[in-house]
Amino acid sequence: MSDKRFIDTNILVYAHDATAGAKHERARALVESLWEDRSGVLSTQVLQELRINLRRKANRPLSLRIVREIVADYLAWEVQVNTGQAVLEALQIEERYGISFWDALIVAAAASAGASVLYSEDLSDGQRYGDVRVVNPLR
Questions:
Q1: Which tens digit of pLDDT belongs to each residue from 84-125?
Q2: How does strand 132-135 pair with strand 78-80?
Q3: pTM of the predicted model over 0.85
Q4: CA 99, 103, 104, 110 torsion: positive or negative?
Q5: d(Cα 109, Cα 127) in Å, to the nearest integer?
Q6: Would you kindly state where each structural domain of the chain is located, as residue ranges?
Q7: Can you identify the CATH homologous superfamily of domain 5-135?
Q8: Which of 13-22, 57-66, 105-114, 117-126 has the lowest mean pLDDT?
Q9: Mind giving me the DSSP string for 81-99?
C-alpha cells in the first residue's frame, strides 16, 4: 500500500481560509503533516481550482500575488498532470461509479499517482475507487 496521499481542492481551500473555523484548523494540520512527511500529491486540476477558489470564492479573497506564492509552493509536491488519457480514465470512473466528471478526474489523478488515500470533503468518506480510499479529514 502506498504512503502517497492525494488532497482534493476543498481541503486545500480550508487550509488557507482562516475564516473557516474548525475546518481551517483541521485542514491546515493535515496539510502541514503532508509537508512534513512529504507524502502529499495533487493534480493540475487541484491547482487550477485552488486559484479560482482563493481568488473568487473565499470569504476573504487572497491577492493574486499570494495565490501565486501558494501555488508555487505546492509545486514542490508530486503533481499529476491531467493528460488526454486521464480524461478517458475519468470518463470510465464517472460511468462506473456515477460521480461527476470533475470528481472522477480527481479520482483518476489519485489512482494514477498511486495514492492509497484521497482526502476530500466532497466524496463519500470511506468509499473505495479501486485502490484509492476516500477519507474526509474534516469529520
A1: 999 999 999 999 999 999 999 999 999 999 999 999 999 999
A2: unpaired
A3: yes
A4: negative
A5: 16
A6: 5-135
A7: 5'-nuclease (3.40.50.1010)
A8: 57-66
A9: ---HHHHHHHHHHHHHHT-
